[in-house]
Amino acid sequence: MIDLFTQHIAAYYSASITIAAGFILTLIGYIAARLLNIRFPRFPMVIAAIIVVVVLLALCDWHYTAYAQTVEPVFSHILGYATVALAIPLATIKFDQLPLKRLVGLFAFATIFGSVLPMSLAYGLNLAKPDILAFATRAVTTPIALNVAALTHAPLTLVSFIVIFSGLIGAILSPLILRNVDDERAAGFAMGLAAHAIGTAQAWQRSPIAGEYAAFGMAVNAVLTALWVIPVFS
User: Fold this and answer.
1) Residue 92 pLDDT class (50, 70, 90 cuts)
2) Nearest residue to 141 via CA among 64, 210, 83, 57
3) Sorting pLDDT into bands at 50, 70 and 90, what band is 222?
4) Contact between residue 224 and residue 210 where contact means Cβ atoms under 8 Å apart
5) Do 149 and 128 meet the contact criterion of CB atoms below 8 Å apart?
6) What sign results for the dihedral spanned by CA atoms 176, 178, 179, 184?
7) Is residue 145, in this structure, part of any structural domain at all?
8) Which residues contact 90 (CB under 8 A, 6 or more apart)?
9) What does the alpha-carbon distance between residue 166 and residue 184 come to, in Å, rounded to a whole number?
10) What is the pLDDT of the chain when averaged over all its residues?
């Protein structure tokens, strides 16, 4: 009995140490990315953090699958709170000064186009129906996309990959595409719509105003997409 209890205690502390190591490694990646961003402000900080984490995993001889299984429960839990916290900057937006009629039309177009176009491409590639449905939430931030995917019976792994990959592409290309856009509100709004949470993080690098409007665009687009995708495809 004592030996069994000791084994349980050892396993508990071993798991805790592994989780702490994964968290610290990720935190080091974030800090290093912040420092690199000071030197190279146009390079997406999210991409820099990924590169640093990959290098650290290679140096520690820690396989990515084992690392992901260790930190995934922790960061999945935190991600939900972080996504909700993005609503805080919305309180500073002066909605009475926004062209609401134009925004309604833009949201309707972006919400439908952001789902229908990638789904059409997937259909053209003769993918299976569940895989096609995974593209319906391409422009939706990960926590909401996974919930929508569960209701529409789309593969969660593919949904996560599509959302994260499209966000990374948006973060990489946004400095180039939006380099001549002087209106920070428009730039942030575009990044939030096209590249959701990763684009919003990139928008905050650009300016606080861009970050606020990116959070606004991302949040509203996610809600609108969920409202029509779930009834249509579930």
Assistant:
1) confident
2) 83
3) confident
4) no
5) no
6) negative
7) yes
8) 212, 215, 216, 219
9) 22
10) 81
142's tokens? 């990960």
* Amino acid code (one letter) for 92: T
What is the predicted pLDDT for the residue at 182? 83
User: What's the whole-model pTM score?
Assistant: 0.75
In terms of phi and psi (left: phi > 0; alpha: psi -120 to 50; beta: otherwise), the region of 44 is beta
Q: Is 83 contained in some domain?
A: no
Q: 200 CB contacts (<8 Å, ≥6 apart)?
A: 86, 188, 191, 192, 211, 214, 215, 218
Cα-Cα-Cα-Cα dihedral sign, residues 195, 201, 207, 213: positive
Is the same domain home to 122 and 215? yes
Q: For residue 63, is pLDDT > 60?
A: yes
Q: How many separate domains does the chain show?
A: 2
Nearest to 211 by CA among 83, 89, 44: 89
How far is residue 111's CA from residue 165's CA, in Å, rounded to a whole number?
18
Domain around 108: 88-233
HSE-CB at 132 with a 13 A cutoff on CA atoms is 14
- Type of residue numbered 22: G
Q: What's the CA gap between 205 and 197, in Å, rounded?
A: 13
Which domain-ending residue is among 49, 78, 107?
78
**How confident is the model at residue 165, as a pLDDT?**
87
Same domain, 60 and 137: no
